[in-house]
Structures are given as C-alpha cells and as structure tokens.
Amino acid sequence: MNFNQLKVFCLVAEVKSFSKAAKLAHLTQPAISSQIQSLESTLGATLFTRTSTGVYLTDAGQVAHHYIKKMLLIQEELNDQLRLHDQYLP
Amino acid sequence: MNFNQLKVFCLVAEVKSFSKAAKLAHLTQPAISSQIQSLESTLGATLFTRTSTGVYLTDAGQVAHHYIKKMLLIQEELNDQLRLHDQYLP
DNA sequence: GTCCCTTACGTCAGTCGTAAAAATG
DNA sequence: CATTTTTACGACTGACGTAAGGGAC
C-alpha cells in the first residue's frame, strides 16, 4: 500500500469517475483501474461499485475514504513540519 | 512513499539499529539501509545520525516519527474497521 | 457509434539478496 | 579483528502506457 494509491483513490471518490481522475492525475484510465484494483486487493474489500453512469463508493469504500483522508492529511502535516526544519534539503 | 518504509522506519527508531531491525523484519541490512535512504530522500531530510554505537533520530527524524506513528495507527484502524464489514473477503 | 472500465502485453523503475567495501571501536 | 552501515550488481516484482476487449446508453 503506497500513498499514490491513496491519493488516486481519494481523487476517484471525489470525481466519481476513473477517466476523469486519470486526466486530473495525468495518468491513463488503465493505470487508475490498476491502482484501485491493487488497493482493493490489499484491503480485501471492493471500494467502488462500477456503473455505466459513474463509480460510487461502497460502504467499505466510504469507511476507507474516511481513514485514508486522515492519513493523507497527516502526511501533509509531516511535510509542512519538515519544511520548517533545519535538516530540510530543498 | 509506502507503508513498508514507514514500518521499517519506526522499527529502526525503536531498536536504534539497522541490523537488529533487519533481523526483526526478516530482511537484510542492505534492504533496511535502502529503505531508510529512500524515505530520507522523499522526505528531503536526514532522519538518523549513524554512529558506531547505534543510530539515533535527528530532530527531523523525531518529527517524522511522531507523524508516521499516527499514520500507521490509522492504517490499523482502517484494517480493523474493514474486517468488521460485509464486503470483506478473507 | 460513443463512453467508460477492464484485460493483455511489453517496458522501465524500484526493491530485494549476495558479496564486497568502508568506517568505527 | 569484530561489528555495523554503505555500495555494487544481478534478479524479480510492480506500475505505467499502448492496444484491444466487453458492457451500457
């Protein structure tokens, strides 16, 4: 599980579309599809229901979204704190 | 940045040794060294001071340790919550 | 036909282990 | 010399893009 997968997951959850997320992330749809499948595999749960009108979070997906948002927020705080620090190398 | 790196980082921070962490994680010392170097590179900060008597967290390393522990805790909560869910596939 | 997601496949970066090197006590 | 970390190198896994496939409107 890596943070790129988590960012892609949150992006898809927001725009409710793999293809739109792909454009926003400057990736291809297959890359998005692969990332989501990989995340679903490691978490052992289906995160999205795929329909012709769009993709939507399952119950498990909503749970995951809640925690993953928190993790990404903490990651940003970490980066912010390190940027203020001495050992930071631009 | 992936979660294996974060777990290795926390392990090294606890045992203050790459070699001991390697044994505990069932990896080799070079693998630990590489993971830490990679994490230091992505965070843009030196996390450990390497001495002959052991490795110790730098100031930036202590900051990172604080946030990374929180991220790993949330990851565990996520796994716990998903395990209670319907869509969970063993 | 059009749009969207998935599968298949070749390519390239990242990670591991083994082996050798460098540094410290 | 013993211990620990780092570097070098070959092998493997994982992620990407291109191209083709399948389903819904």
UniProtKB/TrEMBL annotation, chains A, B:
| Start and end residues of each HTH lysR-type domain | 1-58
Sorted alphabetically, which SUPFAM superfamilies does this protein's record hold?
A: Winged helix' DNA-binding domain
Q: Which InterPro entries match?
A: LysR_HTH_N, WH-like_DNA-bd_sf, WH_DNA-bd_sf
Keywords in alphabetical order, please. DNA-binding, Transcription, Transcription regulation
The entry's family comment says: Belongs to the LysR transcriptional regulatory family.
PANTHER family associated with the record: HTH-TYPE TRANSCRIPTIONAL REGULATOR, HTH-TYPE TRANSCRIPTIONAL REGULATOR GLTR
State what protein this is by name.
Answer: Transcriptional regulator, lysR family
* Native organism: Heliorestis convoluta
Phylogenetic placement of the source organism: Bacteria, Bacillati, Bacillota, Clostridia, Eubacteriales
